[in-house]
Amino acid sequence: MLNASRPQLVHHEVCLPGLPAAFDGYRILHLSDLHIDLLPQLVEETRKLVKDVEIDLAILTGDYHARYGQDDLELARPYAEIFGAIRSKDGIVGVLGNHDSAAVADLLSSLGATMLVNETIAIRRQGDEVYFTGTDDVHHYWSPAARRALDAVPRDRLRIALIHTSELAEEASKLGYALYLTGHTHGGQICLPGGIPVITMGMRRAYSAGLWKLGGMIGHTSRGVGASSIPLRFNCPSEIALITLRRP
Predict the structure, then answer these.
(1) Strand-strand pairing, 92-95 and 57-61
(2) Of 24, 66, 75, 238, whose CB neighbour count within 10 A is largest?
(3) Residue 205 — very low, low, confident or very high, per pLDDT cuts 50/70/90?
(4) Of 242, 246, 245, 248, which is closest to residue 55 (Cα–Cα)?
(5) Of 24, 23, 27, 31, residue with least CA distance to 12
(6) How much is the pTM?
């Protein structure tokens, strides 16, 4: 169990053509798949990892608990503690995963997160702006509204997609998105030596973990903070990613 309850802080620099000058060096903390009820000790481990990291924006890409149908109010205390440790200039933005109900969005909103359900926000710096579009989960709850949300943002702006799975990656790439942040796969959770996943939760292996590229778009799939089904990981440590955006 210890190998599933000690997330690592991993660092990535991502070069995005068209990134406005005011956002050069913008730091995003990407957390996904906390499944906090399966490994409650992750609350303190996550707090310790993020409390001294100064960031511009925290992004959560879904699956806040592991057990379907549980009382969502049980999430209030653990996420209040985690959110309280995050030092983010522009706050916390999240989307839902396949384990999450609409009530989870309401709960996390009450704790201070901006939850995007087929919605877009613009973050502005010194007259420049970057658009962040988040969809509802498209793995269990597919709706044409998710696809429409991606296409509702002006194409002459830099756009970042927040989607629990990589199932809309091709659409986002064709629409000219610069960055696609996702999770769901847990990086495989149980992997062969070298981090080769045995299963990828129905996603393409090329998008199962870490950075990847599709056309002109860069993607990042989190290995996840927590675990699902069983509280174990092999050859696939859990992670929180610190992504720094750079101009070419």
Answers:
(1) parallel
(2) 238
(3) confident
(4) 242
(5) 27
(6) 0.95
